[in-house]
Amino acid sequence: MSELADDYLDSHYIHRSNWLRAAVLGANDGILSTASIAIGVAAASDFREPVILATVAGLVAGALSMAAGEYVSVSSQTDIETADIERERKELEEMPEIELQRLAEIYEKRGLKKQTALTVAKELTEKDALAAHVRDELGINEISQANPIQAALASGAAFTAGGVLPLLVALFLPFEHLEYYLYGSAILFLIILGGLAAKTGGSSVKRAVIRITFWGTVAMGLTALVGYLFNVNV
Ligand SMILES: [Zn+2]
């Protein structure tokens, strides 16, 4: 397969794995924060209804705040990139010679000989000066440019997909010792997703599983403790 095809596949694999990792991490947040709320209320209450209510409220609030947070952070990233590109366009108009030198220096630093670097810079400038500077000087490429709405929807959906799991447990499993069912099922879901994210990202599955189990246990354990301490009969 040609080198170009390899690059094309690689860039698409990276794109896909970025999205998958973000979705898995979003779902992890959904599981952990929704399960923790459910466990905290289950530890404090003698009835299932308050647990369901708190779990649904936590799920909706969490999904909306994740989506809003993602929208704001991606939008401000896009704003910064758009302003940078605009400044670059101006610099290319006002001082094309200096910009050409700057581009050649970037290629030289990457290992090209001085003359080769200048030739490459000249040819790419002739083809599309702004594109060359945006990509090689500012480091902005299609992978880093996310769509804020798409990112917000993906993040909210991932959180919801994760958070629905503890809600189903709170709805259908026996109310007696519900905290343990919630904890056990949440840890199981977290291990599966954490392992998947590690595998997709090419990192150690074992370490990811130990990490998520430990922090998951700490988070859910502390909310259970708070619930027991309050022990409110609603
Ligand atoms: Zn430039």
Automatic annotation (TrEMBL):
<dbReference type="Pfam" id="PF01988">
    <property type="entry name" value="VIT1"/>
</dbReference>
<dbReference type="GO" id="GO:0005384">
    <property type="term" value="F:manganese ion transmembrane transporter activity"/>
</dbReference>
<feature type="transmembrane region" description="Helical">
    <location>
        <begin position="180"/>
        <end position="198"/>
    </location>
</feature>
<keyword id="KW-1133">Transmembrane helix</keyword>
<feature type="transmembrane region" description="Helical">
    <location>
        <begin position="151"/>
        <end position="174"/>
    </location>
</feature>
<dbReference type="InterPro" id="IPR008217">
    <property type="entry name" value="Ccc1_fam"/>
</dbReference>
<keyword id="KW-0472">Membrane</keyword>
<feature type="transmembrane region" description="Helical">
    <location>
        <begin position="210"/>
        <end position="230"/>
    </location>
</feature>
<protein>
    <submittedName>
        <fullName>VIT family protein</fullName>
    </submittedName>
</protein>
<dbReference type="GO" id="GO:0030026">
    <property type="term" value="P:intracellular manganese ion homeostasis"/>
</dbReference>
<dbReference type="GO" id="GO:0012505">
    <property type="term" value="C:endomembrane system"/>
</dbReference>
<keyword id="KW-0812">Transmembrane</keyword>
